[in-house]
Amino acid sequence: MKHIINLHENINDTARNNSDCPHVVLPEEIFFIISIIGVLENLMVLLAVIKNKNLQSPMYFFICSLAISDMMGSLYKILENILIVFRNMGYLKPRGNFETTADDIMDSLFILSLLGSIFSLSVIAADRYFTIFHALQYHSIVTMRRAIVVLTVIWTGCTGGAITMVIFSHHVPTVITFTSLFPLMLVFILCLYVHMFLLARSHARKILTLPRANMKGAITLTILLGVFIFCWAPFVLHVLLMTFCPNNPYCACYMSLFQVNGMLIMCNAVIDPFIYAFRSPELREAFKKMVFCSRS
């Protein structure tokens, strides 16, 4: 977010005087390379689902939604690097109208990436819940039409939310709303997990008779959720500290890792497709066909 990054830069000068922690700076080339890899990997996930009819199911559509979220996070960094290059070459006027508009668009992509990931993971969790505990009625409950409607509502709401947050990003309530969505998503999924655990205890035999793929999907979700928390939580914490204790030396020390936290977000987009491929034989087979067909 432009306003968060600019505020971070302004605060850093004051906070650095109160902290002995040096500001960690990572080469922009690393961000660019990781972002390119993230876009290409998630694009492969989308193409694999589009080209293979056996993958065109609600579950894989929800995975595609998460892949689009990851791709937007990577695309944000690619566009930012390109903008920096043009500005350094003198083609763009610093803080000019075009750069301000471009920054707002890129910030919207960044926020859309987070919101899309949050709601995509939530809908994947709900899908896994119906798969395990309503296996017989699953195909009548989670239809393709309903999946498309849900995803349309999610992305429409996320787009509107991202634009609104960029417009009002300098207000504290907006920051609180932005950061509160992260724990709310965790609470929702945790409640589903607790409910699934309680049902599993009372339906132990029934769970054992379910196809292994159903339980494997729940494990995949757990891994995706763990990676998401690990990669995004440091940045969310950074935003909170920067808003409520910018001049505290301990907060300033943590905020010196701003670029490291940004790198973790970029890595999330690279790791997720490996999780899909490792956990899904169908998707892994689709990847192999895409690679070998393109070579031949």
Largest sheet: none
The DSSP helix count reads 12
* Count of DSSP strands: 0
Could you state the order of secondary-structure elements as H and E? HHHHHHHHHHHH
Alpha carbon gap, first and last residue: 43 Å
Name the beta content range. Answer: under 5%
Work out the helicity level: over 70%
- Principal-axes geometry comes out as globular
**Helix- and strand-based class?**
mainly alpha
Report what the structure shows:
By secondary structure, the chain is an all-alpha fold. 32% of the residues are buried. It has helices at residues 2-17, 28-51, 58-88, 97-133, 138-141, 144-167, 172-202, 204-208, 212-244, 249-255, 258-279, 281-295. It is 84% helix and 0% strand. The radius of gyration is 21 Å and the shape is globular. Helix 2 (28-51) runs antiparallel to helix 3 (58-88), helix 4 packs antiparallel against helix 9 and helix 7 packs antiparallel against helix 9.
Provide a quick synopsis of the model.
It contains twelve helices and no strands. Helix 4 runs antiparallel to helix 6.
Task: Name a few traits of the molecule.
296 residues, 0% strand, membrane, GPCR_Rhodpsn_7TM
List the helices and strands and how they pair.
Blueprint lengths: L1 H16 L10 H24 L6 H31 L8 H37 L4 H4 L2 H24 L4 H31 L1 H5 L3 H33 L4 H7 L2 H22 L1 H15 L1
